[in-house]
Amino acid sequence: MLLQPAKRAIPATVRIIQFRTLPNFFINFRTLKIDESMTKPLAEEVIQSNDLVTEKEIGVKKYKTIPLGINPAYDEAIKYILQDKANKYQQIKQIDEQINNFSEERNDEIIKELDVLQKRKYLLQVQAEVNDPEVRWNFKNDIVDMSKPVYRHLKEKHWKSGPLPKLMERITQMYVVPDVFPDLEPTMCLEFKFDDEFVEPGCFQRPIRTINPPTIVMNSFHVETRLYTLIMVDPDMPDIENKSFQMQWHWLITNIPISATKIDISGGNEILKYVPPHPPKGTKYHRYTLGAFEQSNGKIEMSKMDLKMNVREFVNQHNLILRGATFFREVWDKDVSSIYKNQLGIHEPIYGKPPKIDHYLDETGKKRPSKFIETLE
Amino acid sequence: MSNHFSYRSALSTSIRGILARTVKKSKPKSEIPGSQNANITDTRYQIIKRILYETPKTELPKMTEQDLERHETIDRAWKLFLRNQQEERENELAAKYRKLNEANLELEKLGPRLFNSAQIGNKIMMFPRQMKIPTETPPLNGWNYDYKPLSSDPTKNSKPLPSDPIKDSEPLPSNPIKDSEPLPSDPNKVSS
């Protein structure tokens, strides 16, 4: 089943958010007792608040606080939320003091206890801010500051509920997992853009569009900077001698510093320059897979890459951990011929099935008399 | 005189069975529930159908973005309130369990006899003194709306419990709830 290429791809985060609010609306509304004041926007409201008229600065939207004094339930809600926020910050302060009281040494026990405290602190930081209507509005409108734990939590939660299952479904359906990677448990959202449009994983792309390398976005959720390796691989190149398929490397960049606040792939060492995808004529569609690996051994020093190496061998050699993956598909096009001519400079192979031998015809093509047909094996 | 069950019928049992099965006994239409010719006085099915198919759909009120935000905030605040309540209860229970555990450990050090009798527990079913016994009529003094539970501060001296009517033969004071301060345990509830 072919997936339709995204024609006007809306950024996945925004599109899915628009649906997130609706179920909430339908589920909770039945229990809510509707006050008249809540159904119609009062005339006084419009006059009192110039907030209904959203004054947008050019390009930048900002949250307008809802005025108090109109809906008593809302006033109480805000009061309670702010009170709870203060309580949570108090608790965070206590935890900070506890952390400071720990001695300087770092044996196993202390590391465990510190870990527990850090997790509790993160949870409290999220809980303090997650009910704030301003924060929720910001997240809904994609104004996200990844240095704050709330936004990291909200983004991760949203990714895990929407885009991630879709990605995993497509990866397993297209057998990317056993063919390219042995296993995939993503902790990072790897996305790519062609011509400034996000591409859904697994979609078909036109070869002209992919001549230039895609813009990669690595959305990780950890605060500290870690080094990552990016690869792009085509597992579906035909291998005639073995009557099977072989893997072809398209791109390799190592030592990319990535954190929650740094999401582009600048700062890495490009070991293999980007090779545009070129599915040869006669083969079925090719899956061009992108993989993001965390370098567990720190920096990788390599000058050249052995192109005959398998992905698994490469991963084992450098102790890489797969953190994120995605892929797109392509099929032969007339433009692929021009890619072979201009970009690659090699002879374009055209593949086809071997000719069928008809045992009932002789060499000239005439029907062989039956008494001369040997028993076929 | 003659036993009617002793004579042999002209038809054998098997043939009578076959005949009985071929003759389809159908209920008269007025007995089939739900049909249009059903018993008119039994309107249950009609009522059900009317409720299911003919009541107008309740339209959800249309909310603006601001309304929706208000609604969500209120909803979150309420859920947060309930969550905090639940957490308080859980922490209380956890603290009680911890103290119980510690007390048992201390008791173990004191000696085997007391410890073992504490672990066995009471096989005799006993009811708390303040438990509400089902009565035929409501209480004369009505519901105490101003009741406050006993504060957890141990230094504050608690009021004496109301006299046990079974033990003492004295009659109860005229208005024990209104005159005295709030009781240490809630007389309106079944105490756990």
Tell me about this structure.
The complex is a heterodimer of chains A (377) and B (192). Chain A has eleven helices and eight strands. Helices cover 36% and strands 18% of the residues of chain A. Chain A has helices spanning 12-29, 36-39, 43-48, 72-101, 108-130, 133-140, 149-161, 163-173, 176-179, 311-318, 334-344; strands spanning 189-194, 197-198, 215-219, 226-239, 244-258, 269-272, 286-295, 320-330. The longest helix of chain A has 30 residues, at 72-101. Chain A is α+β, with helices and mostly antiparallel strands. Chain B has 192 residues and is an all-alpha fold. Chain B has helices at residues 13-22, 44-54, 65-110, 112-120, 176-179. Chain B is extended and about 95 Å long. Classes of the chains: A alpha+beta (377), B mainly alpha (192). The interface between A and B is medium-sized, with 27 and 21 residues.
List the helices and strands and how they pair.
The complex is a heterodimer of chains A (377) and B (192).
Chain A: H1 12-29, H2 36-39, H3 43-48, H4 72-101, H5 108-130, H6 133-140, H7 149-161, H8 163-173, H9 176-179, E1 189-194, E2 197-198, E3 215-219, E4 226-239, E5 244-258, E6 269-272, E7 286-295, H10 311-318, E8 320-330, H11 334-344
Antiparallel strand pairs in A: 1-2, 1-3, 4-5, 4-7, 5-6, 7-8
Helix pairs in contact in A: 4-5, 5-7
Chain B: H1 13-22, H2 44-54, H3 65-110, H4 112-120, H5 176-179
Helix pairs in contact in B: 3-4
Estimate the helix proportion of chain A, in percent.
25-40%
Gross morphology of chain A: elongated
Low-pLDDT segments, ≥5 res of chain B: none
The total strand number of chain A stands at 8
Could you give the count of β-strands of chain B? 0
How many strands, what sense, and barrel or not for the largest sheet of chain A? 5 strands, antiparallel
Number of helices of chain B: 5
Portion in beta strands of chain B: under 5%
Mean pLDDT value of chain A: 86
Q: Categorize the overall geometry of chain B.
A: extended
Computed CA radius of gyration of chain A, to the nearest angstrom: 29 Å
Keywords (chain A): Coiled coil
Protein name (chain A): PEBP-like protein
Coiled coil (chain A): 85-120
Pfam family, one (chain A): PBP
